[in-house]
Amino acid sequence: MSSKTDWVDATKRLLDKYKGKKHPLDYKNTFQLMVMVILSARDSDRHINQVAETLFKEIPNMKVLATYTPETLMPFIEGVRSSGNKANWLIKIAKELKTDSSIPTTLDGLTALPGIGRKSANVILREAGLPAEGIMVDLHTIRVAPRLGIVDTEDPKKIEQQLMEILPRKYWDAGMAMSFLGREICRPKPKCEICFMRDVCEYYKKVISQN
Ligand code: SF4
């Protein structure tokens, strides 16, 4: 990890760029958000947005979902990756929570539910406008953060820990901001020539020094 860079200052630029930007999952309320976050694990946001249209017409809230079984839910989510596991988790959650208003509002409460890990819980807290309790680390963040040099690992748990140590709590949307940067610019084949983080980026410095 680069010790010379003022990462708090550099991160502010990222946060300013993506401040308030909505997650690509096209949800309308917290129930939809939670269901879609669970369905999107190891699948694409675009695919889940397509599936959601029919799904939420039939199942508009937790109360209705609780009347389903994994078997009766399956036709609505067939084609989603690991749909069998996800159907089981969703029905377990619905039977336990029963109503939309029981959806937990804390990281511990959310991660206690099946199918929801720290990444999903951090996304739900952010999108629901609740205080951040951790830093969201998804596949894009895992690619972008080590490239920038703000962390020295590709392990998602360690990335979150290191970011939480470096950045003040008010900057904890940084994981999501890095995810947006990863979706738009720092793609697997990075578009460094148009990137506004070039001056602090370790990956870019290495590329430049080799040319
Ligand atoms: S300069 Fe290149 S490698 Fe660095 S963050 Fe930007 S796009 Fe990614």
Describe what you observe in this structure.
- With 211 residues, the chain is mainly alpha-helical.
- The chain has 2 domains: 7-20 and 135-210, Orthogonal Bundle (Endonuclease Iii, domain 2); 30-127, Endonuclease III, domain 1 (Orthogonal Bundle).
- It contains 12 helices and no strands.
- It has helices spanning 7-18, 30-40, 45-58, 62-65, 70-77, 83-97, 107-111, 118-127, 139-148, 156-166, 174-184, 202-210.
- Helix 1 (7-18) packs across helix 11.
- It is elongated and about 60 Å long.
- The structure holds iron/sulfur cluster.
Task: Briefly characterize the structure.
With 211 residues, the protein is mainly alpha-helical.
Q: What order do the helices and strands come in, and which of them pair?
A:
Layout: H1 7-18, H2 30-40, H3 45-58, H4 62-65, H5 70-77, H6 83-97, H7 107-111, H8 118-127, H9 139-148, H10 156-166, H11 174-184, H12 202-210
List keywords for this structure.
Endonuclease III, domain 1; 0% strand; 211 residues; 2 domains; 57% helix; mainly alpha; binds iron/sulfur cluster; Endonuclease Iii, domain 2
Strand proportion: under 5%
H/E topology pattern? HHHHHHHHHHHH
Instruction: List all distinct small molecules, including ions and cofactors, that are bound in this structure.
Output: iron/sulfur cluster
Radius of gyration: 19 Å
CATH class of the largest domain: Mainly Alpha
Termini separation comes to 22 Å
CATH topology of the largest domain: Endonuclease III, domain 1
- The assembly state of the depicted protein chains is single chain
User: Could you say which overall geometry the principal axes of the C-alpha atoms support?
Assistant: elongated
Low-confidence stretches: none
The name of the CATH architecture of the largest domain is: Orthogonal Bundle
